[in-house]
Specification:
mainly beta; Immunoglobulin-like; 3 domains
Amino acid sequence: MELRLPTEGPAAGGSLMLVRIAWIALGSVGCGDNARLEPVPELVRALDVDPDPDVVEINLVAADGEVEYLAGRQTPVMGYRDGSIDGAAVIVPGPLIEAKLGDRLIVHVRNELSIPTTVHWHGLRLPIEMDGDPTVNGSVAPGASFDYDFVLRDTGFFWYHPHVDTDMQIEMGLQGPLVIRAPDEPIVETERYFVLDDVDLAGDGSVRIEPSHEDLVFGRRGDTLLVNGKPPGAITTRGGVERWRIVNTSNGRFFDLHLDGIAMRVIGWDGGLIPEPYEVERLPIAPGERYDVLVALGDRPRMLRTLGVARGHDGFDRGPLDLVYVELAEDAAPPGALPATTATIPRLPVSAGSAVRRFTLREEVDGPAGTIFFINDQRWPLNTPIPVTLGDVEIWEIVNDEDGDHPMHVHGHFFQVLDRDGVPEPRLGWKDTIAIGARSTVRAALQYEEPGKWMFHCQIPEHAERGMTADVEVTPGSSSTR
């Protein structure tokens, strides 16, 4: 069933007309229609071929393939398949890699595409040679292989994707989830993963890949929403408490999640559990961010929706749009008490005298060179790496005096957010992706923990590929304390 939705958003005007009237697979529909929704697919787990309980060894193949985003239409994609399983097809998202804290992860990547690629482990702290930055270690050529091999230092929900022609390769389907478990995970009735995405499909089912001006300004935002690689669908719950791990892998769409009638308890951010969980009625998730939430279900059906998100440049990510219909099993139990979660996170040692490093974001959306972006007036890849010292703790002041939103992601490290526009951050936790709103400044503490040249970029890949990327060169000094 396809519904034509009304156009939403700000009134037309300004230099850009950015609101499109489009067909999408699922709009905001009444509960009576939801019985016809297809189930939200479960993620396909990668096969671990190593019998050692402390080693996870995966064979991952990047290849061309086809998936069925919409019923009856085959869409050509670039994606990952499990190379350990004969006949395994390319899937979007790619196989879920599961491991535990302290495991050695070995991923043998083979490139069967006609173009170079890499794998970046978004959010993980690891040696620079394993980060997937082609300017450090080169790319994986067509027909070649590369072994990613490192020890897992953090728990939480992460994802992997290329860092070559990132905007195109992610949009075409090269992305997959990774979960790293702690020894003391909270006990719940059900754990689910939601990989939220969107795709812009042409009438023949193919992905529209040539970016428009709007795509460059906001990042690609498709009219077909995807949950675990399929249009919005349904889950059946037996009630009680569920744990939802959520990642936004969209190039440019911001989600603002709302679950009918109940609050979501946030227990974790990008870098794992947080010391003080909190409850929200709305949960904004920028591209690249991850959240870990507990929900008490069981007394009636509900709908998880994304609400409308105002963007800079008179843009708008439309909403409310349905994502997941939660229906009750016949033997559903009443909602239970949410389990307590614990996490201890030391505060990074910063004070009024700490070194402050400023990153100023700049954009030219209608300039003579087209739509381009800068950090500190330098445009990647013509930028000069910023020298810093291993072990040092600094305050990063990220200043966005422009009209666009920029979720900024740092490789190989975590932030602790200190304040936003002068208002102290009320909670402590590890972030590797921070949404910097239009005309906004965020200050965050960071410790340089691993030598190498690390990228710091906008996670909207259309922005990163067109200049909004810096390189931070960490050279040996005092040792890390985390």
